[in-house]
Amino acid sequence: MSAPTQPPGAEVVSEGTDHPQLNKAISRNLLLLFVIGDVVGGGIYTLVGKVGAEVGGVVWLPMMLALGLALFTAASYAELVTKYPQAAGAALYVNKAFRRPFVTFMVAFAVMCSGIASAATLSRGVSGDYLPELWTKAPVVPVALFFLALVAALNFRGISESVKVNVVLTLIELGGLILVIVVASAALVDGQGPGLSQAFTFDGHEGSIVTAALAGTALAFYALIGFEDSVNVAEETTHPERDYPRALFGGIFVAGLIYLIIGVLAPAVLDQKTLLNVEDSKPLIEMASSGPLGVDPKLFAVIGILALANGALINMIMASRLVYGMSVQGIVPRFFRQVHRTRRTPWAAILFTTALAMALSSTGSVSDLASTTVVLLLSVFTFVNVSVLVLRKDAPTSKKHFHAGTAVPIIGAAASFLVLVYTVVDDPAQLLRAGLLLLLGGVLWFVNAGARRAEDRKFDTTEIIAMERGSEKD
């Protein structure tokens, strides 16, 4: 029996539940721009010089390797999200694969913390790096907190409004990168810079090109992560089985192509001193202001702010939907499953994730907050790739779901783990903040477990696996 038609703006309530469902408002084109906007974010605006410091002129090589690694894990996500199109994302997949509530919680907590830390990083980037180009006396912490409050307000307003703002910001973001490519190409034709030969000259790292490429790939991989955030809006996508894989691979391809072009043009247009000056130089601003078509550097300060705002919005959408999805699955307290009756957005989850982002933004610098993202997400990617293999035993509910070859998740898991190990060994300090956040997650888990025992409610994996979307077994 079909459900009665709801008037515009009315809540949609699952049968047998007392809470409204999320609104299916994201089309394939909106999802494509969502993926592009999340991948092409703040990283590219600061990454080129750091990659160049490792490999010299061959900036494009680590970017190409990172793109290949990202595609393996993206294929695993495409298979899982088309089999299980629910908002919990990686937490749901690991939960179904391993049936260990604590493992599920820690994976979900790692994903949530990576998104929140990323948003906090971007807020400090806006207030501390780009806004001072326009307002020299901008107070860093108050501006960062105000910025996060604006993001939260838009997130609460609605998924449709949030994704449409993402469309506008993504177009501006992409327009700025295209402008960089056009201006830098004109500068190259005009004879400025070392020339294209420099893009194929290895002169950065003191070791071998293999060692340098690994170090550069770890950095470049940071700029390509973000595609996993789209998993957490799968439940709000109109046709996830059909649209999600196309949008996912299309978005990564567009972002990767832009990265590769910039990776070739940067060493060809900028002299080595400018390119490798990772402390003071912003390579994209330098490229955009070069040659006969160069533009005012302040223009890129504005574009940089919008790019960081776009990334923060997407990360906070992801984090709040993840908390909501976990609550629906019974992994975190029921309070976080509350959806606003008119806006139909997970208001409790939005408040929680925003409060945590504000706390992080108030206490950590850009470098401190950004250093945890790669460690946390590569750990999650390893679990997700393994989950694909474990869950092959489950029959898909739809024949239209995406199927990755058996070798794909194996390579994805191995690559993610090896890059994770290399990142930690190369800079052990990167593990500290991630470890403290995960320790906090462990404490919260045991506190929540004690509360459930006090309520005489059993929390076991088989119960979670048996749960259907929108229902809970008390």
What do these coordinates show?
Helix content is 68%, strand content 0%. It is an all-alpha fold. The chain has a single domain, classed as Amino acid/polyamine transporter I (Up-down Bundle). Helix 3 runs antiparallel to helix 9. The protein is globular. The protein starts with 27 loop residues before the first helix and ends in an 8-residue tail after the last helix.
Question: CATH superfamily, please?
Answer: Amino acid/polyamine transporter I
Q: Average pLDDT value?
A: 80
Total strand count, please? 0
The helix fraction, in percent, is: 55-70%
Please write the CATH class name: Mainly Alpha
What is the CATH architecture descriptor?
Up-down Bundle
State the end-to-end distance: 26 Å
Outline = globular
The main β sheet shows up as: none
Low-confidence stretches: 1-19, 459-474
Based on secondary structure, the structural category is: mainly alpha
What is the number of domains? 1
DSSP helical segment count: 17
- Report the sheet-strand fraction: under 5%
- The whole-angstrom Rg is 22 Å
- In CATH terms, what is the fold-level topology? Amino acid/polyamine transporter I
Topology (elements, then pairings):
Blueprint: H1 28-39, H2 42-55, H3 60-83, H4 90-98, H5 101-130, H6 140-157, H7 159-189, H8 209-224, H9 240-269, H10 272-276, H11 283-288, H12 297-328, H13 347-363, H14 366-390, H15 407-426, H16 430-454, H17 461-466
Helix pairs in contact: 1-7, 1-9, 1-12, 2-8, 3-8, 3-9, 3-14, 3-15, 4-5, 4-14, 5-6, 5-12, 5-13, 5-14, 5-16, 6-12, 6-13, 7-9, 7-12, 8-15, 12-13, 14-15, 14-16
